[in-house]
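tool_call: predict_structure(chain=1)
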Amino acid sequence: MSDALTILWRELIYVAYYFDVQLRQIFWFWVLGMAIGTFVSVFLKERIHGTVRSLGARVPGGVGLVLASALGILSPLCMYGTIPIAASFSKSGVRDDWLAAFMTSSVLLNPQLIVYSMALGRTALIVRVVSCFLCGALAGALVRVFYRETSFFTFEGFSEPKNRDTDPNIVMRLLRNFGRNLRATGLYFLLGVLLSALFRRYVPDTIMTAVFGGNHLWGVLMAATVGVPLYACGGGTIPLLQEWIGSGMSLGSAAAFMITGPATKITNLGALKIVLGARRFGLYLAYIMAFSLLCGVLVNLLVAHAS
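tool_result:
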């Protein structure tokens, strides 16, 4: 019995050590991400959404897709907050293809997650931002081509959400928004750090390299598939991705995971199903899987070519 307790205690010490190492590496990215997300939400959110509403009066269609996808990345709202906003955009005359670009990129990325992803290194950050932007822009282009004569979204029953950042005291407004970010991401972030510590202790690097490494379609497909059930929160997956990339996961596999994860997060899917309907919801899932696989393969090819 004493031998078993000694082994257990030793393993707990190892896991705690790896937890501490991982936490130190990523903690300030998490805090900075919440701070920037708070700033954008309090000071820039209305300006970003106002810009989307005014696109139709200022820019042609193709340019609008580009701007809508970029603005979706800058929007700090979750999908349940994005859909009512998109409904108000639709009532204001914003086209469905622009809405598709805005909503798709908004699902995949936000200012807070951009800062979190800095912990993965410059190359991974660039891959994430560019791939999410292209995913949104291409989604809008496809809606423009195939749904030119009919509506792609159904927004009946949605009203614009109440703005919770209205406290007249600017300091309290910032603190309350930061607190909401902390409550939304804190548990998942710590869970991600714990899982990364367990991976480092108990999963050999050779396994990660065999499953997710190399420039093969199999690794990208596995990463895209794992992203579907595993993704719960952007902040929580960054520690895992950092550990996986360090253990041999290819950048293309990481790119596929970073697309399918947030795009198929269960709360996001629940919201999208409401405004898409069964057939278009199926098209959305097929598009996300196809784009993530293509993106992952292309990223691996580019990395291989560059090296």
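agent: The two ends are 53 Å apart (CA to CA). Proceeding to next step.
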